[in-house]
Amino acid sequence: MIRTVRGAARLEGTVTLPGDKSISQRAILLNSIASGNAHVSNLCHGDDRASILSCMGGLGISITAHLNCAQTGAEECFLVQGQGPDGLTEPDTVLNAGNSGTATRLVAGLLAAQPFFSVVTGDESLRSRPMDRIITPLSEMGAHILGRVDNSLAPLAIRGGNLSGISFDQPIASAQVKSSVLIAGIHATGETTVVQPAESRDHTERMMRAMGADITIAGPRISVRRSTLSAMDVAVPGDISGAAFWLVAACVHPDARLTIRNVGINPTRAGVLDALRSMGANIQIKNVREIGDEPVADIVAESSQLHGTEIAGDAVPRAIDELPALALAASLASGTTTIRDAEELRIKESDRIMATVAGLSSLGADIEERPGGMTIRGVDRLKGASCDSAGDHRIAMTMAVAGLIATGETTIAGAEAADVSYPGFWRTLNSLTSQ
């Protein structure tokens, strides 16, 4: 699908985001293996939601949707009937995680502990992404896992059970890998410890702790022991990764004021806020509160005079999904911005370094590809042109926001990729523009 975006005279309005997909998937998976029933409201939309629901349904979990839920007061919620730590059933077909690396890796951690055979796969993009980073620690714990291409790619054939705890020093900061090992760890004998090289999103640890897991968090070390979780209702906050596009749009547009409601501001995910503030962004955080074990707030962003910055080191894992949008912000900031230590971007749904550079360059940005990032020198304006999403939802949305700022028209091939994480994106974009 090709979408055309025209430069907007003004951006103004209020945004309500889809539920955070990282929290959504964890809420479904962990409640599936908990004791009791749970209601999960504001679940993420799009393909990632379908992926986790399909995988857990294939393992025998009953998950039903309810409109105008009397229990939660939400317009939609999902009732998850937890089966406890030993209640999953062997799937009679291959589990398909679609395009979701989170679903694949978290479900693999769960399957590693199950005393049956299972296979998990995904779409073409997912089948090219590295799985050896979970195969290695899960195999060390006692699972038998076989993948393609030197045991490194999905589909993954898994025969699990009888796991023993390990101490695992992560070579690369990754919340998906950490979570996979911790989920296996609550089924293993002894203690399982993950040591992170840098802080990554901590939704799994927070939710496990709130559900009664025997978990200890000491800086970069997270340790879990065999635990039975108690079901917990979860009201999923708005996805800060989705908010990033509107934050950048407001900050780089010369006449903009956007309010984004009910955004999750977990400090391990708020790197986009820190990066924009370091660039001089006019951002206000209001109405801070806690829902469940997650901090939530409303964010107001306005037109700003941005300047260059550096995003590197420990800041990268906290903003990894938002780096394409931040590259757009840097393209219209004064001075030079450097993004380093972001090699992980090359193995997402696309090579996001290459795709970001190609897309923004086509609109006139002064941006250079580096092995682990980008160097961006700000320009006065972008000019509408044709570009491609590379089949990646974050690239599609980055280029759409670029089109709002650019002069003339911007056409985006593969625009439907945005539906993976944000099916209402184009409708929201249209509602905020004043042509």
Record keyword descriptors for this entry.
435 residues, alpha/beta, UDP-n-acetylglucosamine1-carboxyvinyl-transferase, Chain, 2 domains, five-stranded mixed sheet, four-stranded mixed sheet, 13 helices, 24 strands, 30% helix, globular
CATH first level of the largest domain: Alpha Beta
Percent of residues in beta strands?
25-35%
CATH architecture of the largest domain: Alpha-beta prism
- The helix/strand class is alpha/beta
Q: What summary fits the major beta sheet?
A: 5 strands, mixed
Spatial strand sequence of the major β-sheet: 16-17-15-2-24
Mean pLDDT: 95
Q: Please report the distance between the alpha carbons of the first and last residues.
A: 23 Å
Low-confidence stretches: none
Multimerization state: single chain
- Tally of helical runs: 13
Give helix % range: 25-40%
CATH topology title of the largest domain: UDP-n-acetylglucosamine1-carboxyvinyl-transferase, Chain
What number of structural domains do the residues give?
A: 2
Q: If you compute it from the alpha carbons, what radius of gyration comes out, rounded to the nearest whole angstrom?
A: 21 Å
CATH homologous superfamily heading of the largest domain? Enolpyruvate transferase domain
Q: What is the tally of beta strands? A: 24
Given the C-alpha coordinates, what overall shape results? Answer: globular
